[in-house]
Amino acid sequence: MTARSKPKVDDVAKLAGVSTATVSRCLNTPDRVSEETRKKVEVAVEELGYTPNFGGRYLASNSSKTMGAIIPTMENAIFARGIQAFQEVLANSGITLLISTSGYDPEREFEHIQTLISQGAEGLLLIGAARPKKTYEFLERRNIPHVIAWNHRWDRKHIYVGFDNYFAMQELTNTVLRMGHRHIAIIAGPTTYNDRIEDRISGAQAAIEKIDETSLIVKFCPTNYSAIQAGQAFEELMELDHHRPSVIMCSNDVLAVGAIMQAKAMNMNVPDDISITGFDDIEIAEIVAPALTTVHVPHRRMGQAAAQLLLNIRAGKLDQKSIKLGTNVVLRNSLRHKT
Amino acid sequence: MTARSKPKVDDVAKLAGVSTATVSRCLNTPDRVSEETRKKVEVAVEELGYTPNFGGRYLASNSSKTMGAIIPTMENAIFARGIQAFQEVLANSGITLLISTSGYDPEREFEHIQTLISQGAEGLLLIGAARPKKTYEFLERRNIPHVIAWNHRWDRKHIYVGFDNYFAMQELTNTVLRMGHRHIAIIAGPTTYNDRIEDRISGAQAAIEKIDETSLIVKFCPTNYSAIQAGQAFEELMELDHHRPSVIMCSNDVLAVGAIMQAKAMNMNVPDDISITGFDDIEIAEIVAPALTTVHVPHRRMGQAAAQLLLNIRAGKLDQKSIKLGTNVVLRNSLRHKT
DNA sequence: TTGAAAGCGCTAACAT
DNA sequence: ATGTTAGCGCTTTCAA
Question: Counting beta carbons within 10 angstroms of the beta carbon of residue A140, is it exposed (0 to 12), middle (13 to 18) or buried (19 or more)?
Fold first, then answer.
């Protein structure tokens, strides 16, 4: 073995003066090896800088100790905390997490699912329930354990670890209505293959339909993670002269912050001239001035629960149930009573 | 093959009526297979939902099409944009990215390096240059291509794709000095195994040493990513009565935002009562009020360049050179002339 | 252009 | 407690 080539079990075995099986046992089931032998092997491993080849290991044991997650994008802080928690729980069980990003494109999500499965992912974390039939067929045919996070449904077709976007937005809208607002606008990102946003919009609509003489305008902006585009949408809404909204509800905090910034740029005072709300309660919600009224989502708990669920399935407990996490409206200064 | 088990090359070969070698060629070198045969195989692959087993593939071809990255944490937005760009470039070349987080702990970083190598990572993205000798020895002995990002050094021992933290902070400090400030405090995260922070502090010190009758206090807070802890550090600094600083320079934007929030809580006006600066120019720098004077770091370009470099090495171009990216001071309202 | 067969590095069943 | 050995799924010679 030269210094440049990868050491293998045989190298370790030879150096330690034992068989390859013993080396393997030292690594995987150390309690089945005598203290003395283990020491010898450990020294040899250290000496050679040996790390087992994953391919061989996976092939022989049919266990990859790997899970996969596909998120829309890392740039939206919405996912960072949840995924970090997800990873931490997995790491505690010696499981490696593979992360890919789909850029909100279901085609790319499908490709990445296939890649991750090829890589040996024993389970998958997916965001939201909206994806092409083809993708679900693949998951089903290959019998791939998967958890859908960031949303929740009552159907029993999949396992969800999420929250009720519809209900949460309905609640927030009720709060807004209770404050006397009657003309409401929503700034939302695209809803194609994004059921979280769809549900949030429906939730707002449901709340409004119960109250007379209210109006709701939905303004779409091109992405879910660009504050600037939300600013443009805000500007256009302010040009309305019929049913000009007194409150702008944004489909997430990033867009809401964009709206607040634009309001400032237009010399409008939030909340005196216009109220603005968000959704998610990520860090910037507290940082922006005025602080953002939003819906708090327990991201860390969601990530942890999703990981635990996949670990349970991996351990053979196949009867895992969906978990619905609560959300709550967080009142801060960006929303106030209609004057 | 039941519906639940994984299809293998043999299944595909049988269904398409060809040999396994032909199936393999269809997947890897399609131009070496006749149009007609390829069609048959493609149909069979589709039919079975076949995805090649990574373990077998890696073992046989010794190519994993995989790179690894180990970042301190996902929760600090500092890394999100750079890593996203890094991943995008890799994905365009059909390379999967494996991401792990070390929590700023060099021991865990070392473990994750080993795991990623086991998984077949053909190259590694690492953050910063400070890590135990043991880690570098491992990288060297195994001859693992790696790029060090988020910092830059002139030594030729490693490949860097980063910026000069020392120089950037020196520049920012010069700006601060030019505005008449003479009593400066730094709020910084831990410097153990964090050369970026170390360099930033040294850079500030270097700038100050050139000017007479200046003072510099360095206040450490327990983490690099907690705004609240920075707030506490800020509070303690404000209790000084000798050489009370007129400007607080924070080692990153997250800490700076924490300081601003605390100033507000203490009814102090930024920048009238106290100036505050950050480092990184992440999204919140523009969002916080007042907007943060900070150092802009080209995170996307850094991630892209790092990916390109690793791809080049993978393609056999071993003579890659370090890349130093420029930074620039961004003046916003959190810093003003000393009155 | 295609097929037959060896072998990548490892684990696990079996034997001792 | 340890060794021997078959074989995981794939790619890649080599031969046809």
Answer: middle
CB contact under 8 A, B51 and A114: yes
Of all nucleotides, the one whose C1′ comes closest to residue B59's CA is C8
CATH of domain A1-50: 1.10.260.40
The sign of the CA dihedral A10, A11, A14, A16 is negative
**CATH number given to B165-296:** 3.40.50.2300
Give distance CA A80 / C1' C15 (Å): 52
Chain A contact present for B100, CB below 8 A:
yes
Residue A153 vs residues A147, A299, A324, A325, B45: alpha-carbon distances, Å = 12, 17, 9, 12, 33
Within B7-95, strands assigned E span 66-71
CB-CB contact of B196 with B128 (8 Å): yes
Pairwise CA distance, residues B181 & B272, whole Å: 13
Residue among A51, A87, A137 whose CB faces B114 most closely: A51
> Nearest nucleotide to A13 by CA–C1' distance?
D3
Which of B83, B114, B141 has the CB atom closest to A3's CB atom? B141
* CB proximity B63 to A under 8 Å: no
What φ, ψ does residue A211 adopt, rounded to 5°?
-115, 135
CA pair distance B153, B37, nearest whole angstrom: 54
Residue for token pair 């301190």:
B72
Domain spans, chain A = 1-50, 165-296
Please, are residues A117 and B50 in contact by the beta-carbon 8 Å criterion? Answer: no
**Cβ contacts of B66 on chain A, cutoff 8 Å:** 119
User: How far does the CA of B147 sit from the C1' of C11, in Å?
Assistant: 34
Decide: B70 and B139 in contact? Cβ < 8 Å.
Answer: no
Distance between the alpha carbon (CA) of B59 and the C1' atom of C7, Å: 10
Q: Is A332 exposed, middle or buried (0-12, 13-18, 19+ CB in 10 A)?
A: middle
Contacts of residue B119 in chain A, CB cutoff 8 Å?
54, 66, 96, 119
The reply to whether residue B120 touches residue A54, judged by beta carbons under 8 angstroms, is yes
Q: Tens-digit pLDDT profile for chain B (339 aa)? A: 344 568 999 999 999 999 999 999 999 999 999 999 999 999 999 999 999 999 999 999 988 899 999 999 888 888 999 999 999 999 899 898 888 889 899 999 999 999 888 888 999 999 999 999 999 999 998 899 999 999 999 999 999 999 999 999 999 999 999 999 999 999 999 999 999 999 999 999 999 999 999 999 999 999 998 888 999 999 999 999 888 999 999 999 999 999 999 999 999 999 999 999 999 999 889 988 899 999 999 999 999 999 999 999 999 899 999 999 999 999 999 999 998
